[in-house]
Amino acid sequence: MGVGSDFTDESVDVMPYFNPSMYRGFGDDAQGFYAIYGDLFQKISTEDKKYLEPEGEEYPQFGNSKSAYDEVVHLFYGFWQSYSTPKPYYWLDKYDIKDAPNRKVQRMMEKENKKIREAAKKQRNEVIRQLCKFVRKRDKRVHAYKEALQEKDKERKHLVEQKRKEDLKKRAEAMACYQEQEWEKTEALEKDYNMLEQAIDSEYGEDLTDNSGSGHYCEACSKFFKTEKSYLNHTKSKKHKEKEYYFRLSLQELTNLEEDSFDAQDLIAERDKQSSSKVESILEDN
Q: Which of 207, 264, 210, 202 shows the shortest CA–CA distance to 237?
């Protein structure tokens, strides 16, 4: 078949189907959307089978208003959106290569015929793909699926946001706990420092160079204390009591020594007085 043949292309004309008036409603009745376009794509499939291998690819069916999206709808549109006609369109050949006078002219004829066939295929593919796009845009099953996806995405975003807030809350709580622990640690260190300072004050006293004029002085230990509390703690220590004992003992000895010194001076004075009297008496006799 080709140039001069009586072949007639009886492909269904799909152009009228680019009109919403072709169907009435979206039910499964004979005039409904799914029945009208389901029948149209079935006709196209039947036409193409003539040019397919016996074990060629099966065309997905359009289904009805209740068809599942993943099992039917998705497969249908996935196939027809990338439709490629198997029709050879050799009946559109412009030249009969049998009439070629030589090999060179024959190749030129074949090239021109091929160009015409490819143009017809491209046009058919584009028309069917646009038809698929037109139908998909109006398919309620696709709309329902999109809405379900949007709802799932909305729920996913809500869960993500909720988890983000929970994570922020946990981090805030952890930070607050950490800060509290650091505060407690600082408080404990200050307490330990104060106890150590009190122990040092009790043991060694405080700086004697303090010129504030207030405080308590331990004469036995030669130590100065700024607070009464530290002074009282010091007086209770064993070391202070030992020094205080020897300090008091030393004071007693010093007191006794001073008393003895006073008695000796009296004796000397009395002796000197008596000697002076004797000298005066002798002088008078002479």
A: 202
Beta bridge partners, 206, equal 224
Consecutive 10-residue runs of the chain (286 residues): their mean pLDDT? 64 94 93 96 93 82 95 96 94 92 94 95 96 97 94 92 89 76 64 68 51 65 78 82 77 61 54 54 51
5 CB contacts (<8 Å, ≥6 apart)? 91
Q: What is the DSSP string of 66-108?
A: T--IIIIIHHHHHHHTT-------GGG-S--GGG-SSHHHHHH
The amino acid at residue 120 is A
Encoded tokens for 159: 């869960």
Distance CA 233, CA 203 (A): 9
Strands 216-218 and 223-225: antiparallel
In contact, 143 and 77? CB cutoff 8 Å: no
DSSP for the chain, written as a single string: --TT----------GGGSSGGG--SSSSSTTSHHHHHHHHHHHHHHHHHTTS-TT-PPPPP---TT--IIIIIHHHHHHHTT-------GGG-S--GGG-SSHHHHHHHHHHHHHHHHHHHHHHHHHHHHHHHHHHHH-HHHHHHHHHHHHHHHHHHHHHHHHHHHHHHHHHHHHHHHHHHHHHHHHHHHHHHHHHHHHHHHHH-B-TT--SS-SEEETTTTEEESSHHHHHHHHTSHHHHHHHHHHHHHHHHHHHHHHHHHHHHHHHHHHHHHHHHHHHHHHHH-
Q: How many whole angstroms separate alpha carbon 164 and alpha carbon 159?
A: 8
| Phi and psi at residue 216, to the nearest 5° | -135, 135
